[in-house]
Design brief:
Blueprint: H1 2-15, H2 39-49, E1 61-65, H3 71-88, E2 93-99, H4 109-119, H5 131-143, E3 148-154, H6 156-163, H7 166-177, E4 182-189, H8 200-206, E5 209-213, H9 218-232, H10 242-252, H11 257-273, H12 281-301, H13 305-321, E6 328-329, H14 330-344, H15 351-364, E7 367-373, E8 379-385, H16 392-409
Parallel strand pairs: 1-4, 1-5, 2-3, 3-4
Antiparallel strand pairs: 6-8, 7-8
The structure holds a DNA duplex (33 and 33 nucleotides).
Length: 410
DNA sequence: CGAGATTCATGTGAAGTATACCTTTAGGCTTAA
DNA sequence: AAGCCTAAAGGTATACTTCACATGAATCTCGTA
């Protein structure tokens, strides 16, 4: 019975034609064939990197700019072109792109180097090897023939904030030891104040060249959206005013084009699902809500169990004590958390660690935790939930489910 | 009344520990000559 | 004897714990007006 129903569903799905002509164009990893409004920056990058084609080491390059200003796309675009030309002419140029923000992939020195080595085709276990050894493997994989490696480290500020600047120092230093090859590093950072964190020596070697990406203004975002929309959607599938509205949303967020594109894509998906013939303005509003929801749900969902439990404890306190208008402090949180541990079948963690977890949840934006001094009564963090109120219930049930599941198992 | 000392509850850095995983080595077993 | 498998030994990164000291404003203390 069920299958019959499903058959119908899929058939219907096949018959309703999609609003999209090519959805890939709107995905965040897509690198367009032409970058709008970034000619100047791309030229600069190209000039800096061009020596690679003569097998000279290009200067290291540092790129600043807020999220969604086309940093990553410009760099990828330029390096792809170089790679292509290099391939056609048999010039040994290799490009590796690594996003340092991704947890469990490149957020420590070991993992970063391991990831680079993997990109060079080496198998590196997730743990167990000495870090020197990993450097060695990487070194050998690189130096066995003459080549130029262009290493793109996206969101490098995240990495350095977590692990210090030693990695970068090592990477820049390795050049003098390489006999055949040379590495040139492109660092990309969202944080304009980032240079304060790093050692001046590292800084000077890393940013031999610097490029700053200004935010797009609303008109530029509209251009970009139009261009992409014309590729992504079928003709006349987008209602008047949808694109300006998308652009306006994004311009409000300091000109974040990535956000605008995501908004447009999700709006398209929603329109399709509601069997609308065109993407309308109302879909944009829905999309904005959905994106926010998905993001939070996803972040919460992918947290380790202990983090989830800590978060859940915060929920409980909020529900319980709201009448008393009490603030949430670390000590209270720890008590609740400890009580909850056996229920979830987890071994309680120390208060020291909880402090770190709270700090990390703060970084993720799920809560806000401010260190305050209560004078005579000590010093603590004042914790508040940072989740929009219309999502609180959803997240809470999600947490309850995740933790309850664990309960059954034990 | 105000400057400085005190105090509390927790922040925070450093060092130590447990766990999970890796490679190497050695012993035991099987197999083929 | 050679080859293969398994278990033990020796080593590492990471997440967490333990230890110890740092923080910073409300409160207390005490000298002074």
């Amino acid at each position: 019975m069920v299958s019959k129903k499903l058959n119908g569903f899929f058939e219907k799905f096949l018959q309703t034609d999609s609003l999209f002509a090519n959805k890939k164009v709107l995905q965040s990893v897509y690198v367009p064939n032409e970058m709008e409004h970034r000619d100047e920056q791309i030229n600069q990058i190209a000039n800096i990197l061009a020596p690679a084609l003569k097998v000279d080491k290009p200067s290291n390059l540092f790129i600043y700019g807020k999220t969604g200003t086309g940093k990553t796309a410009s760099v990828r675009y330029t390096t792809e072109q170089i790679h292509k030309v290099a391939k056609e002419n048999n010039i040994p140029v290799n490009v590796i792109y690594i996003n340092c923000k991704l947890k469990k992939i490149a957020d420590t020195e070991y993992r970063l180097i391991a990831e680079i080595a993997r990109a060079l085709g080496k198998e590196i276990p997730p743990t167990g090897l000495p870090t020197d050894e990993v450097y060695n493997i990487f070194f050998k994989a690189l130096d066995f023939k003459e080549q130029i490696l262009i290493l793109i480290l996206d969101e490098i500020d995240q990495l350095i904030k977590r692990t210090g600047d030693e990695v970068i120092y090592n990477l820049t230093r390795i050049n003098s030891e390489l006999k055949n090859s040379q590495i040139s590093i492109i660092g990309i950072s969202n944080d304009l104040m980032f240079s304060n964190y790093i050692d001046p020596r590292v800084k000077s070697s890393l940013s031999e060249e610097e490029i700053i990406f200004p935010p797009y203004n609303a008109l530029q975002i509209q251009d970009i959206l139009r261009k992409r929309a014309s590729l992504a959607f079928k003709k006349d599938a987008v209602d008047e005013g949808v694109i300006p509205k998308c652009a306006a949303f994004a311009a409000r967020e300091h000109g974040d084009a990535r956000r605008a594109l995501e908004l447009l894509r999700v709006a398209g998906e929603l329109a399709e699902r509601s069997e609308s013939k065109i993407v309308q303005i109302k879909h944009i509003d829905e999309a904005e809500e959905k994106i926010e929801k998905d993001r939070i749900i996803d972040v919460v969902h992918t947290q380790p169990k202990q983090f989830q439990l800590v978060l859940y404890s915060i929920f409980l306190i909020r529900n319980d004590e709201q009448n008393k208008k009490k603030q949430i402090f670390t000590g209270d949180l720890y008590d609740i958390y400890k009580d909850l541990c056996p229920k979830a079948g987890l071994r309680p963690i120390t208060q020291r660690r909880l402090s770190d977890i709270v700090a990390e949840l703060d970084m993720l934006g799920l809560i806000t935790a401010k260190v305050i001094s209560k004078g005579r009564f000590g010093r603590t963090r004042e914790i508040n939930l940072g989740i929009p109120s219309h999502l609180l219930n959803k997240v809470e049930t999600l947490l309850a489910k995740e933790l309850e599941f664990n309960d059954k198992k034990n």
